[in-house]
Amino acid sequence: MLPVVSIVGRPNVGKSTIFNRLIGSRKAIVDDQYGVTRDRHYGESFWNGREFNVIDTGGYLPGATDVVKKGIREQVHIAIRESDLILFVVDTEGGITSLDSSVAKLLREQETPVLLVANKADNEERELNATEFYTLGFDELYPISAISGRGTGDLLDRMVELL
Ligand code: GDP
Ligand code: MG
């Protein structure tokens, strides 16, 4: 079985954009067996000769923050159970939110390795701003731009080291 990398984080931080960049032209499989956590996408990726599966999480019901929060918590719990590595995505454009902090808390309380990915670091200024995310309590922070690909090589190098 290939190692599994799950992508988690609040809505709109760019999880699906990162997922699409990781799987490239390969096809995603949609898994709808989970209740509010339907819409999980599975795809294969490889880097430096290492193959792995990637899971994009999402599909939270729109609406009140507590409903979104419940969906995210559920996704994070599944990710913790089934992953060898978790990419916790935050957004350098929007900064830290209370949802980020609650996801951070869940992820810090468990053993699966986590890389904090500060997405939308499209330029040097955004990349510098990304240091604020160290306050979420993770050792390894990777500022990237999923749209341009900036920083994604360093992230992938580290990912396959950990798999
Ligand atoms: P998700 O809800 O976390 O899956 O986020 P999406 O991948 O759907 O992206 C949310 C929005 O952020 C979309 O409009 C994306 O085009 C945008 N986005 C994603 N990555 C980047 C990035 O690296 N830079 C910028 N500026 N926008 C991005
Ligand atoms: Mg998405």
Automatic annotation (TrEMBL):
Residues 3-163 form the EngA-type G domain. GTP 1 binds at residues 9-16, 56-60, 119-122. Associates with the 50S ribosomal subunit. GTPase that plays an essential role in the late steps of ribosome biogenesis. Belongs to the TRAFAC class TrmE-Era-EngA-EngB-Septin-like GTPase superfamily. EngA (Der) GTPase family. This is GTPase Der. It comes from Fodinibius halophilus. The gene is der.
